[in-house]
Amino acid sequence: MSTASGILVVGDMIVDEFVMGDVSRISPEAPVPVVLVESVERKLGGSANVIRNLHALEQQAAMMGVVGDDEAGHWVRERLQALGADAQGVLTKQNGRPTAIKTRVVARHQQVVRFDREWQQALNPQMHETLLQRIQDTLDDVQAVILSDYAKGVLTDDFLQQLIPLLQGKIVAVDPKPAHTQSYKGATLITPNLSEAAAMSGLPAINDDVHIERIARHLHQALHLTYTLITRSEQGMTLFDGEQCHHIPTAARDVFDVTGAGDTVIAVFTTCLMRGDSALQAARIANQAAGVVVGKVGTSSLFRTSFIILYPNR
Description:
It is a single chain. The protein is α/β, with parallel strands linked by helices. It has a single domain (6-19, 38-307), classed as UDP-N-acetylmuramoyl-L-alanine:D-glutamate ligase. The protein contains nine helices and 13 strands. The strands form two sheets. The protein has a nine-stranded mixed sheet, sandwiched between helices. It is globular, with a radius of gyration of 19 Å.
């Protein structure tokens, strides 16, 4: 990226695979449905789905992470390049670490089963060192960094504690995992869902405004954040901006599948902040965007036409 107007995404890339079909009988071999396969589809998932959303926003982006030396890893690189993303920071892990693949078998819009092929162990120190150097080399070109943590070995505690201090002066947005809570200190914002936020704070996952505000304030203070945005499923979102909480009702008309909605939220919220919107306006737009993608089946991202409708002045 040649100008300081881009967003860098760092995290765990996943291939989301969907086996779509129909069910009309139960197997005579075992009490399980027989799915007659009609189609198989792949999509970029995990942190790579954030790139899909940024592409829909016409936002310049670069991807940093790791894939395996396998067919799925080559496919990920090709798809990132097709989206116009800078994929030079995508490393290839040798010695058997595969590209993460989550396969969902879906019949009549209902997920029957999901099976995962992945490696969750942390990257070795040499790969983390290489990744850190490539991130440093890219920082002059970016205004914001999204850390998309799917707990697959890229964003470890040690790595985060080295990385976040290097990112000061940028918007640092984190889609978090509770296991790494303390390592997010110094980030600008986090976008956990309710269950993640509750686990991160050590408080119960009670979905009412008063309790959510307590969780948000706790995380805000403990992690030295500027913004805390908690997604609350059918009850929308809560934004704490350091002074007050804003409860934003859901924009979804129908919820078919929440897969990928968190990627949309962090991509839109971060992009809007970077482009000069207030945190409240950015949260409202992210809420509208999430309402679009949860109405779709599968790992969904925004389409460009959706964003034009959501944000006509851009």
